[in-house]
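Hi R.,

Here's the chain you asked about this morning:
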Amino acid sequence: MKETDIKELNERIQKESAFVDMLNLEMHKVIIGQKHMLESMLIGLLSNGHILLEGVPGLAKTLAIKSLARTIEAKYSRIQFTPDLLPADLLGTMVYSQKKEEFQVKKGPIFANFILADEINRSPAKVQSALLEAMQEKQITIGENTYSLDEPFLVMATQNPLEQEGTYPLPEAQVDRFMLKVIINYPTKDEEKHIIRENITGAFPETKAIIKPTDILKARGIVREVYLDEKIENYITDIVFATRYPAENKLKKFDGMISYGGSPRASINLALAAKAFAFIKRRGYVIPEDIRAVAYDVMRHRIGLTYEAEAENITTEDIISEILNTVEVP
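And the predicted structure, written out as tokens:
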């Protein structure tokens, strides 16, 4: 790509990404702190990927997606996952109409633009797998009919840390369908004081609609145009291959620690998330820092650890950090 083309693309993206600042301003009226969570939600939204949030209850996960849906004037559904939830509670079912003397489809809460799957790991695998078709194919099958879901379609699932009572680990195939796995931390002391003051006075600000779902679909097309150099492509493949073959990539100490590495979906999502991150930063091209910024969220749920790694208290974060420090930056 010529330098003049990149310059033109950069100028166009700076213009087209102006709404990102407006969205951030609206969201920060309601959400105090949690900058990384809001940034991750925008990356997922702009690159057509689903997000898995992990953190203890009470860290504004539900409030964040509700506020985002309101700023985009989109349909929002919250599904509370419980041990007795059935797939039909999620997708919908066939109901017999006595008046018409025939079965009619009663669509479930999954038919919305933004789905909050709250405490997803409190439900057994049967319900979790019911989400798979919706997340991957953007369609639902009820009876003999298949229904397409409206775009944009974003699933933001929250999960409690696995140490908590009554949680089921998600199947690997489903976890891999999430573009990002974001770990939510506690707010700082100053943020916590701000939260207390707002809740005591009861003066909760409301977000207002800034853009429409069609604007998001248009922005997605522009995000895909963000320039990704071949050197950056090589950097992405080097990172992913290091998770599969650590010994061949100067990471001999992790040999026998990784049961499986990132799939090709990890490479695709690293590239897409980096493009969305560059767009959020109002840039028309991807730099190595963009890859490093999204690497943890894209990779942490795509690396399987062996018993040896767990026995030595090695986490996926340790492995990603070591890979980013070892793989040569272009």
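The chain has a mean pLDDT of 85.

Let me know if you need anything else.
M.
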